[in-house]
Amino acid sequence: MKRIKKLLSVLLVLVFTAFLFAGCANNTKTEDTTGATGGSAGDATTTTAPESGAAATGTYNIGYNYFGSGSYALLSLANNSKVVIDAFGNKATSMDDEFSVEKIVQDAENMISSGVDGLIIWLPVESLYLTVADMCEKAKVPFVLNDKIPSDPSIIEKLKANPYFAGAVAPANAVYGEAIANYALDNNLKTCIISSSSVGDASDTPRLDAFTKAFTAAGGKILAELHADAADAAQGQIEDALVANPDPDFVYGVGSDFGIAAVSALENAGNSRAIVVTSGLDKAALELLGTSSLKMVNGDFWVCGMLSAVVLQNYLDGTPLKDADGNPVWVDNVMPFEVPSEKYDLYKKFFLDEYCYSADELKQMSGKTNPDFNYDAFLQVIADYSLDNRLIAKYKEGKVTKEELSAVGINVE
Amino acid sequence: MAEEILRIENLSKSFGPTLANKNINLSLKRGSVHGLAGENGSGKSTLASIVCGIQKKDSGKIYKDGEEYSPANPIEAGNRHVSMVVQELGIVGNLSPVVNIFLGRTEQFKKNGILDFNKMEKAAREQLDKWELGELALDGMTETLSIGQRKILELIRALSIDPDLLILDEISQALSQDKREILYKFIKHFTGEGKTILMITHDLEEMLEICDTISVLRDGEIVATKACADFTLEELKHKMIGREIAGDYYRNDQEEQYGEEVILEVEKLGVPGQLEDVSFQLHKGEVLGVCGLSDAGIHTLGAALFGLLEHRTGKVCMKATGKLLNRPKDVIKAGGAYLSKDRDADGLMLDASIGDNIIVPNVGDMTGKFGFLSPGKVKKLAQETSEAYAIKSTGIDHIVKRLSGGNKQKVNLSRWLIKDLKFIILDCPTRGVDIGVKAYIYEVLRKAKKAGLGIILISDELSEAMGMSDRILVMRDHKKAGILSRTTDFTEDKIIEVML
Amino acid sequence: MSFSQKNNNEKMKRIRNQIILFAGIALLVVISNLIVGGSLLTFGNLKTIISHAIFPSFVTWGMMFIFTSGIIDLSIGANILLSANVGAIFAMDLGMGYFGLIFATILCTVVLEQLSVNCSVSLKIPSWISGLGMALVFEAILTIYATIRSKTEGSSVITLKGFRGMGTMPLMAIVWIVGFIIAYLLFNRTTLGLNIRAIGGNEGVADAMGIDKKKTILLGALVGAVFIGLAAVIQESYAGKLSSQSGLGSLSTIFKSLATVLLAGSFERIISMPVGIMVGSVFITGLFNVLTLLGVPSGTGQEICLGGIVILCGIISHWGFKGVVK
């Protein structure tokens, strides 16, 4: 029996070793197929698409990660990337990080091993950007940063110097918080309770910090700052906080789940005066807008998922989006917008039930299919991005009538 | 009514390649006590467990009251009025004693789907009173009862199905002297009503005194069945073992024999509510027996000496160095050791191997150059110990729970005795072991005594304490009632007088 | 000391410990109330605390029927999330209202729990392993649903519109009290309850006493699942929606219940389990409430306090107890 055990152990080691070699072989294969990629980030003319088997047929295998599946916001971000991948007829490979930052790196590595031609990375930790960048450089896999970007100038500099770095597209995160603070101050709301996800959450923290800074600087007072691991626990926390602070002017739900929890908590507490404001344009939150204590919702950073995929597509097509100095595109100011209750139906129709850019529009966002599309054109797309402009675009496509737009205060003349 | 209550014909049972029972033929008479004698592993418990439905026979037939009987489980056996008190403790500690008694049969106390505990307690009390088994707390958690009380509880549970055949497997060894008297009285009462007892015990004197007929099992076969009166103690031993037991069973000298040097000094040792002001000295090479009635505190004394009990008062120290022994760690460091009464619960790691159990107290000596355990040293020690103490097994990797009671106790004892000990506290070291192992353990202790080891021998068996000790510390009501000398005081009457 | 004296002493000791426990809690409540300036013992706040305690109470009563027989099923959190969403689909998408919500949720909980427990019992693998495995499976199913729904419906899970009655006072409290009475009777005063405890206490003895182990464990899981299903209904009704989780994130759903099990287990020698669960869940939710009133930061400081309190309770309840605390 002992001998059999020993034999099995040896066999197991051999099998693992074989797998390891197999993994190396896989990397080598990627290297071979992408070997023709040359040039540096600083030299736009020499940067070419990887000549993988997929590239030869004009399509790519594009990998993207999403932090977790439970959150509508995170899923929407991923779905927005997917719609671009589909629009260009590419193949998609995705990985669920299961809310584990450590797993993001593993997932990126696994996607590289599986032979993707490019990566759309959602990475919320400053210290890991260069790790992933090195990994991609070694495997010669182009990558783009989606929604989250580093703030350390030295990291940014190193990223920009990486020949496989296609660019980055992120929202003006601080603006979300600032916009909420400004809304509160404009409406003379001076005291608040904040409900947010767990301490240090990558999405909520920058919003929270920006809100706190802007709100308290203008004399606002934060009565309680609550953190819950799961949104389901938030309602109880808010109810407890309402006992300690029975008369806040408003509750800020940093994500829409927390905003919805705040609405229920206020209903249970019987506090009719306080209002709820939140960030995150999901359907459940928007449906409460105007029909409950929820009075303001801002958001839509999800479009970053789309735009970052566009950046990668251009890189892979051999038309990388670079500024005059040859630096990859770096956008950190995709602006949020508010959805007033009168525009909710149109928003739902064109942002939730379908995607805000049509497949045809997306196809025009590649230098390969549209020679006029370049770095400046891309920045113009971002500058033009707003609820009203998108609705006007839908009008031009014939999907909405002039009267419908005029009914919500948009004049198309 | 026929005189025969149970007849077993050509019954065989095997566990893999091991034949536990081979062609057993046995007849039990109504109103009698039938003894089953045999070494550990001779097949007594297997036979008993087949009769009461815990195990199934491979072949052969059993007839109860003239009808074929083949219980699939204890409930079916109970329906035919057969029940058993098993050797190992069989209670559920987190349930109350009254629930333990009727476990599996609580439906009878249901009223509108809800159990009536008053009715249940009343039924239990009726059994206690009917058989005069003394008093027993029926509420609270069963885990708070002493081992003896738990055995009585198991007996009541067995009686609660109104058996006419009751199997008692090693029940008396868990009982103190006074509880044994209650048991013997019960046996008379029970058989007096025309009911039968099949009794398994390693205490051969007890067997000869109580039983009407004795069957001896050896290697799974019945080698003799005779009326008790036709057996002598020596013949019974011989039949069981198949050879004469080498050496003397107990000491045959009548003198206290130990060194002048005091090893251990105990002063006013106490544990609130459990032990009061016990003082004594243990000498080099002395066997100090500890006896008392149930609840006298003899087992508490062992645990307290080893430093297991909280809120201990008084002083336990090494005489030579003056070092206080407050915790088990201190005792072990000073060259002491302790074997508890319930070896399965408190002594051995049942799911671990013989080797692992042996090295646990010796692990400090098993390290290699860099402080890690040295597999070579570990294996050597385990192997040598296993061989030196004749532990019957397939090897040092044999899982302890699969060993017989005697071999388990050999593992338990040997791992301490291989250390360079100054004294050892043994609480009922021969509980649940057969005559052969018992003799072996006494022999080992005799050698250890000769080598200068101080031994505190806590025992529920007066004969054992008298047979092995130089002095006996008698306990009464949690206090020391006196210390008797082998030279002058060792008569049963005298000791019992002090106990009472 | 005579036997009856000893027996009486034991009983008195138990009663004394019960008095000390409840007096200790009462004292703690009074002191806390003074510290927070009287806002703890207001009607509104007590209502809030009770309403928060109801979900963990029901989950823990359910766990009691499952864990006591030795089945440590860690898929309960995922089961709750999946079942609540199934209930919501029946209530909202299929238009079956309260009936759909309650019936479908409980039925789903029962089926999933039977799957999980059967996986352990029939395949003879440790329950915590099968539980974690099933948790991953349940989470994955809900995640697939959430992913599809995100693409098509504009939110990852259904938010209940209406059908919130089971999550509002006083109905919640009435259900809670009825739940307690049923849990108490089933656990302490029925054959099933005793058999479950016997299997957990000593499997060998339970076998020898003719208790059908598999049947009892599965029956216990069935009863436990009904309580857990009710918990899911209450929480879905109370919060409006239960989000999907992945990577065993569902364990956080039952965090308070696990803490309650620990507390109730610590005091099992003083008060019976169902009562301990009721007291424990109110104690834990009350603790979070007081800490919030005191301004202790949630997510960090509050969790540290809870950890400390759980350990403290364990120490106090086993004061002077010889043996291993299990």
Please outline the helices and strands.
The complex is a heterotrimer of chains A (413), B (500) and C (326).
Chain A: H1 2-33, H2 53-56, E1 61-66, H3 72-87, E2 91-96, H4 101-113, E3 118-121, H5 129-139, E4 143-146, H6 153-161, E5 165-171, H7 173-186, E6 191-197, H8 204-217, E7 221-228, H9 234-244, E8 250-253, H10 256-269, E9 275-279, H11 283-288, E10 294-299, H12 303-316, E11 329-334, E12 337-338, H13 344-352, H14 359-363, H15 375-384, H16 387-396, H17 402-407
Parallel strand pairs in A: 1-2, 1-3, 3-4, 4-5, 5-11, 6-7, 6-8, 8-9, 9-10
Antiparallel strand pairs in A: 10-12
Helix pairs in contact in A: 3-12, 4-5, 7-8, 9-10
Chain B: E1 4-15, E2 18-29, E3 33-38, H1 44-51, E4 59-64, E5 67-68, H2 74-79, E6 82-85, H3 97-102, E7 110-111, E8 114-115, H4 117-130, H5 147-159, E9 165-169, H6 177-192, E10 196-200, H7 204-210, E11 213-218, E12 221-227, H8 233-241, E13 262-271, E14 275-283, E15 287-292, H9 298-306, E16 313-318, H10 328-333, E17 336-339, H11 343-347, H12 354-359, H13 375-388, H14 405-417, E18 423-427, H15 435-450, E19 454-458, H16 462-468, E20 471-476, E21 479-485, H17 492-499
Parallel strand pairs in B: 3-10, 3-11, 6-9, 9-10, 15-19, 15-20, 17-18, 18-19
Antiparallel strand pairs in B: 1-2, 1-4, 4-5, 7-8, 11-12, 13-14, 13-16, 20-21
Chain C: H1 3-35, H2 43-67, H3 76-93, H4 97-123, H5 127-153, H6 171-188, H7 191-201, H8 203-208, H9 213-239, H10 255-266, H11 273-293, H12 301-317
Brief account:
The complex is a heterotrimer of chains A (413), B (500) and C (326). Chain A is α/β, with parallel strands linked by helices. Chain A has 17 helices and twelve strands.
CATH class of the largest domain in chain B: Alpha Beta
Strand content of chain B: 25-35%
Query: How much helix, percentage-wise, in residues of chain B?
Result: 25-40%
CATH class of the largest domain in chain A: Alpha Beta
**Separation, N- and C-terminal Cα atoms of chain A:** 87 Å
What does the radius of gyration of chain B come to? Answer: 23 Å
Low-confidence stretches of chain B: none
CATH architecture of the largest domain in chain A: 3-Layer(aba) Sandwich
Biggest sheet layout of chain A: 6 strands, parallel
Estimate the strand proportion of chain A: 15-25%
